[in-house]
Amino acid sequence: MALPKPPQWAVRLLQRICPTEVLEEVEGDLHEAFVWRHKTRGAAYAKRKYIWEVFKSFHQVKIKVKTQHSGIMLLHNYFKTGLRFLWKTRGYSTLNILGLAIGIAISWLAFVFVTDEYSFDGFYEKADRTYRIKASMGFGDKPSIFAGSSYLMGEELPRQIAGIELSSRYKSGFFLGKIDREFINQVTHYADGDFFDIFDVNFLIGGAGTFNDPSTVVISESTALRYGIPADLSSDEITLVLDNEEARFKVIGIYRDFPGNTSIRPEILMPFSLWAQANQRRTTIWFDINMNCFFTLAEGVSVNEVEQQMTDILLQNDEFEADVALGLQPLTDIHLNPELRTGNGINARGDNQMILITAIIGAFCLLIACVNYANFAVGNYLVRLKEVALRKVFGAEKTGIFKQFVVEAFTSSFLALFLSVGIIYIIMPAFATYANKSYELSVIFSQKFLLGGVGIMLLSTVLAGLYPALLLSRFKTVAGLKGKARLGGRNLLSKMLVTLQFCIAVFLLASMLTLNKQLNFLLNYDIGYNGENLVRIFRPIEEESLKNTFKNRLLGLSGIQNVSIASGFNGTDYRTDEGEQVIVRHARVDTDYLETMGMELLQGRNFDPGIATDFTKACIVNEAFVKARGMENAVGTTINFSYGDFSKPTIIGVVKNFNFESLHTPVQPLILYMGGYLTTYDTHVKVDAMNQALMEQIEAIHNEMFAPYPLNYTLVEDDIANQYELETNIQKVSRGGSIIAIVLSCMGLMGFVGTQIRQRLKEVSIRKVVGARARQIFGLYLGKYLLLLILGVVTGISVAYWIMQGWLNNYPEHVSFGMGIMFFSVSSVLVVAILTIYSQLFKAMRLNPVKYLKEE
């Protein structure tokens, strides 16, 4: 009769973990015990006990692994030694790791921001084949390029071009949303059925179907919550208001909210058939650019060929005096391309300047922190030179010593990584505000950003630990045993690193001061009109009688000086009698526009409501128009401009240039007139002083005349400031980066000077014995480092001047870099550096010479 056998996997496990010299004995004893238990207590009990005994043998793994894998033993010893040394020098080590943690935190946040910006729209499955229609129009070598499409392009081009696989128009709509008895402003978006395939819309319930019924909509998850639409669509209607008429729409699907890193974030999607019903005239015009249109091309289709076919079809169906061509803009290019506009449902514009500056600050802060660590580490490791020498005497090789210090650098970087999470928690709200994002701490724990943080930690290990490890592993054994703790001769690399730190610090400080100076210049520049105490109310008004009533009622309020109602600034072109094509901006205004805005009339007269032709045949132009047309006496000249029914007006006045757009672009030729069919939607109200009571009175009049639409207003001063939001954010980021860079640089200088001073304490003692005063000692050692600092700040200020002068030239109106910025940047960094050097020399200057000379 065959003996019972224990589980074979347990036997094999025992053979792997048990040392060879005792394996036969242990295996035999366990097998005998298994047979006896099988006979007396049963098979199940015997197997259970056998497996338990095998697991109990795991205590022998430690012996076996350590005897066969000495590398693991050494690694374990490196970590243990490193932690013990960090604890022994916990004062310096805490400061060192804190500096490294700050560098990791700043670079980690920069990585999050830059990665987030470059990930925009790239996560869609068909993103690499999806494009937006763009167009170019103009004369000569510099045509105007703009993004947009007409309804007819989105209809006909996919039908006639085989390479277009999916297509969807996309346009904004503006309604009032009714929630119970309250009304809110609600932006909606029109789309075609292919939209949901192009952008991978994830429906939680329902779906879009063919998406042709104008009485149906699909909404986002957050919108459903806001309007009280249950997740099961048991109640599936929302009420929207347009032109004072309420309409009920059936909700046929609820989709998951679009992520934050996308250029489109629709809350309510409506079929384009609804827009077509209300805009029949615009559905038959080929070049009526008023929406976006997305195409997804089939695999392998040439973009250039599709662009050519699009242009050919357009030219076959419409005639143009200018050179016109259609093109395709990649979906992933929209977010960071400043040349093509956003709008019509595309938002969240990014900026390459902000990305570049954030990346530079992150890289610089990490580099400075790693340099700090290297200099601190070298200074701290001086006390371990005898330890290194003894290791070598007992057979340790250079590679072993090198590995030991690299592992210690990794340990410090690992601790700094954990500490950086706390730093990020503190500065994340401020950083999110600067970056105009909605970041929370949890974002860094996503897989992508967590891997980025680990990558930064490993990079900091290399940057921070390589130099000390190489230096100490190559240190001569005899010098270490004799206690000659002088490293590296002239120590040129350490000096270069300190110089680099202050080069970076003065570069960031000078750049920040230049940004601050230019931003203040932009905000205080004379833009040609007075935005102080000027309120802008957004309310489209077409009826003249309604405009006059609203205007007169506002003027009846105490504290209101003037009221004007105008359109926005459109762009168009016209051909002169000489055949020259002229591109201008134009706007429809009223008789009180110039006075309300505080503009200066240089020639001629203002509009007069008593002169009938001022409404049909008169215009006022700006200085830029007169200069561009080369007019000596513009007043009285008839121009060939026409827009709708308004045609061939006569110039009655010339207004001083005013910046109706930001100072990012020069003032363009402008025509102001009172006729035409442009919708007026900007009501400008000039008040004596802003106060809550007056705004409540204005709101009461508005609500009485335009209910249920709520009052929508801004302060013109805020509108002007918002034009320079990018510069403001860059200024804040660079200011924070400059302060951190200077602090880290001073910490690095502290480590470097401290290392040098500790090597020369006997020298200082001898100088004191022979009569040197503290001031003389300070001057002597300051001279050793002053050249390094001057070299760093001169290099940094030169690089800052070269880069910032190029940046300033992007503005038509700008400040100069200036000697003031140079002087303040250099002097500030030098003063802080000198104080740092003094703090390290102070102890040496006050020491008792006997302590370091008693052996002599």
Automatic annotation (TrEMBL):
The chain crosses the membrane at residues 94-114, 354-383, 404-428, 448-472, 492-515, 736-757, 778-803, 815-838. This is ABC transporter permease. Its main location: membrane. It is a multi-pass membrane protein. It is found in: Cell membrane. Residues 93-312, 504-667 form the MacB-like periplasmic core domain. InterPro entries: ABC3_permease_C, MacB_PCD, Macrolide_Exporter_MacB, Permease_put_prefix. Residues 360-474, 738-849 form the ABC3 transporter permease C-terminal domain. Signal peptide: none annotated. Keywords: Cell membrane, Membrane, Transmembrane, Transmembrane helix. It comes from the Bacteria. It holds the Pfam family MacB_PCD.
